[in-house]
Amino acid sequence: MKTVTEFPRKVVEFPDMGIVMPDGCRLSARLWMPADAADDPVPAILEHLPYRKRDGTIFRDQLTHPYFAGHGYASIRVDMRGNGDSEGLMDDEYSEQELQDACNVIAWAAAQPWCNGNVGMMGISWGGFNCLQTAAKQPPALKAVISLCSTVDRYADDIHYKGGCLLIENFGWASTMLSYSSRPPDPLLAGDNRWRDLWLTRLENQPFLAPLWLKHQHRDAYWKRGSICEDYSAIQAAVLSIGGWHDGYRNTISHLAANIEAPVKGIVGPWIHKYPHYAAPEPRIGFLQEALRWWDRWLKGTDTGVEADPAYRAYVMDSVRPARWHPERPGRWVADPVWPSPDIKTQEIELIPEGSEPVIVASPQSCGLAGGEYFPFTFGPELPGDQRPDDALSVCFDQPVLTEAIDIVGAPEVLVRVSSDRRQANIAIRLCDVHPDGASELISYGVLNLTHRNSHEFPQALVPGETVTARVVLDQCAYRVPAGHRLRIAVSNAYWPMIWPSPEPVRLDLATATLMLPLRPLAQGDEVTFPTPEAAAPWATETIRSANSERRVDRDEKTGKITLSIVDDFGEVRDLEHGLANGSIARETWAIHPDDPLSASGKTHWTQTLSRNGWSVRTVTSAEMRSDAQNFMVNARIEAYEGEKLVFERNFDEKIPRALL
């Protein structure tokens, strides 16, 4: 990545710009802008997050926001209320208060003498979500959005209930946020006499969100609020949507490109959950240059040609050997002028012909351990591995060896007629690329709670022994399967630890199954190109402890229990400008017995540290989740230390009835 230090306009920075909300709550913003903006006003760009601008997202902020400022923008990175250096309290993700605060910041920015009145909003993940949701509120000054790794459906395409199945990440992310938001503001900004009071008040009111999310197990009004798919026409700002094939949020780009009426373009690369100018697997792209083209057109009125860009640009990945990490993925960029593309045709492949004997699916509860993380982001061993261990625990439908390569671009689907011996059952379907030597690489997967076969809002119990029809939609993908390989469709009724198991062991009888495969004419090379990545000067730090990620699966031969253990040590660094050192370590264990779905358990343990010149704080959070046939049980604990003194402790403990899941 090229580092740019000279820009068209000189940049000035304000590390703690106070923006006071109508209720008196002061939000802390870090602001970069051209030094002469008061004489030559510029558009503003907002990124509104709970992830701490001082020591959380600072790595990517340093690469990105000064770059925008140097090209004629006021770039504003705001800590949401209740997080980082901002006042107030946070009670949930994407709350009405959060979105109203964003609208208020937009109005504040547009009214400043250094702003030309036009504002854009951007973000990845949480910031990608709330910029779309804020756009749906239609604040007058908001003219354009760049949303990365986001969703249009908070229930069925986020970390909560994929296909109506309870995602393990529902609990995992709640544990992560409990830790993230437990840290205090920086005393250098909040003041020696205020930071502790703000911190303790924050801790006393800190939510543990897992119980709240578990109380909404169907797609009710709680999830509909903020789900863009409820009314795509509400989005009137121009939207650039970006995602990665190795991320959990890979479907949104297609949904937005196909459905919103405002100007919209989509880009999907081979990346994990990161901004694409520093993401992996490579190739990276010049994201900041692409962003400037978008901002310049919609915030400055400059003709940059973005309206003529293809509607959907995607990286078709070549087949590679299965591995838990890929530093790069060979392939090619394809471009479709309109989306959905009329050039993509659906091939129907009959897996179980009508009139055949039913195929029995009765997977061990441990099937799924080769699936990887829902959204990898550590540049470590989080990707799906060789699928053969999971294939051996699934029913597999292997197709003939391909005589010619094929490009799969879109969302494969599998139509099934199936019966269950229980009132509730899950089904997981994986599409795999099988190499000539038998190695199995995951292309895409989909899961469905069969009680949700007709509606996520109004599930219907299965009648044991009665055959029903269901459609399992796999995630969007762009993948070339070469000649000499074969496709494998693997079906299981467990997918641990991606989804929480059914309360009882289940047997499914598949009566029929048909694969609907979206095929694009074979690309002959890159159909579109991007500039190479460049960015502003990186964050200046001193490494105190290097980062490291570990992942291990253990089987207890005496008890039969299988445990996945994950340690993500994010290291510790010291900021060379303001001297604050920060570090964090996350530990997770996910355990299950292959024969007992009620043996499932998850545990998390996070440690966060901050220090400077003899001052130090540490927060330790732990959480556990398990279930019986009737209830989910979740508990958590926060401990906060100043130096070595315990200054705060709090426990959470709730039992939530299981709905018809």
Automatic annotation (TrEMBL):
Alphabetized Pfam families for the sequence: Peptidase_S15 (PF02129), PepX_C (PF08530)
Classification lineage: Bacteria, Pseudomonadati, Pseudomonadota, Alphaproteobacteria, Hyphomicrobiales
Key words of the record: Hydrolase
Xaa-Pro dipeptidyl-peptidase C-terminal domain sequence ranges: 292-540
Organism, as annotated: Mesorhizobium onobrychidis
Matching Gene3D superfamilies: alpha-amino acid ester hydrolase ( Helical cap domain) (1.10.3020.10), alpha/beta hydrolase (3.40.50.1820), Galactose-binding domain-like (2.60.120.260)
Stated name of the protein: CocE/NonD family hydrolase
Stored SUPFAM superfamilies: alpha/beta-Hydrolases, Galactose-binding domain-like
A GO molecular function held by the record: hydrolase activity
